Amino acid sequence: xxxxxxxxxxQVTQMGQEVILRCVPISNHLYFxxxxxxxxxxxxxxxxxxxxxxxxKSEIFDDQFSVERPDGSNFTLKIRSxxxxxxxxxxxxxxxxxxxxELFFGEGSRLTVL
Amino acid sequence: AQSVTQPDIHITVSEGASLELRCNYSYGATPYLFWYVxxxxxxxxxxxxxxxGDTLVQGIKGFEAxxxxxxxxxxxxxxxxHWSDAAEYxxxxxxxxxxxxxxxxxxxxxxxxx
Lengths: 114, 114
Fold this sequence. Notes:
The structure holds 2 protein chains of 2 kinds.
Chain A: E1 5-7, E2 10-13, E3 19-24, E4 31-37, E5 43-50, E6 53-57, E7 65-68, E8 75-79, E9 88-95, E10 104-105, E11 109-113
Chain B: E1 3-5, E2 10-14, E3 19-21, E4 24-26, E5 32-38, E6 44-50, E7 56-58, E8 64-68, E9 73-78, E10 87-94, E11 102-104, E12 108-113
Parallel strand pairs in B: 2-12
Antiparallel strand pairs in B: 1-4, 3-9, 5-6, 5-10, 7-8, 8-9, 10-11, 10-12
C-alpha cells in the first residue's frame, strides 16, 4: 500500500541551526501539507502546498519556515534558525483531492532543539 | 474561526466494553468531519469521514460516527473495544470556505483494561 515516508524519524539540533525535514508523498497526490504537534498539545496546521506553491499557511509558519518540492518527489520543510519552541513532532501529509479527501500522514519527524 | 473540542482528554475502558468519544465543532456551516487515530509511534490514520448524506458513517476497525447538526457534534463509537484500540483519537474538521486545511481537536487518549 502506498504511504507517505518521512526522514529523519528523529533529529536533535542546537538552537540557531538550520534543519530540513524531508517527506516523500504518495506519488499521484497533488496536495501536500505540514502539520506539527508539540508534546501534549494539538496537531496544528503549518502549511499547504499545491501546484508548486503555498496555498495556505498558518501564523506559526513565519519567515523562518519554508517549503519546497525540489524534484517532483520530495517535499521538504526547512527551519532556518531553530528555536527551543520548535521542538515538536512534524507530520507530512498528502492528498489526492485536497483536505476534503483523505489526508495520508507520515509517521512524523521528531525535532528536538537544545 | 473554526474550532474543534474533544472534552475528554483520557478515557479508560475495559476490553469488550463499548466506547464513545465526543467531538464538538464550532462553525456556522456544516464542515467536513473526520476522525483520525494515532497509535504509539505511528502517524495519523483516517478512521472515517463525513461530507454529506447519511449522518451515521461507518469506518475502519469497527468504528462508526454520527453527525448531529443540532448539537454540532460528531461522536465516535465502537460497540466492543479490543486491546489494540488503545491509541489517541483526533477529531478534525475542514471547511473549504475557511481555507485549505484541517483543524484538529486536542485528542482523546484511550486506555484499554484487560
